Amino acid sequence: MDDPDVITLSIGDGANDVSMIREAHIGIGLFGNEGMSAVQSSDFALGEFKFLWRLLMHHGRLNYIRNSELVLYFFYKNFVLTAPHVYFAVLNGFSGQTIYDDFYISFFNLFHTSWPLTIKSCFEQDVSY
User: What residue segments make up the domains of the chain, in order of their start?
Assistant: First the structure.
């Protein structure tokens, strides 16, 4: 567990799996005949093993795609906002004067950060389940 690039997933259905579930980054507990201790100490609880496929392959894939698009969107949005500021600062001799009013900066961040990402996260699915 010393490598920061490694993420571990553990799946258990009984009391003997509790320490493994707690040690892993993501723990999945299955409802079983051995009790509820694995479910209570896990991050996700599933009723059967067959539900694990959808959790990993569908929701995990969508989560990865949405997070990577979110990072790229924020880099692009911030570049579009700050590039004119840098150019304007060079032309004005780095005087500290801004090209935009504070209200416009807040308005830009509100509508170009929250709304597009909220709409995309609610309605976007690249593949159908």
Answer: 1-49, 53-129
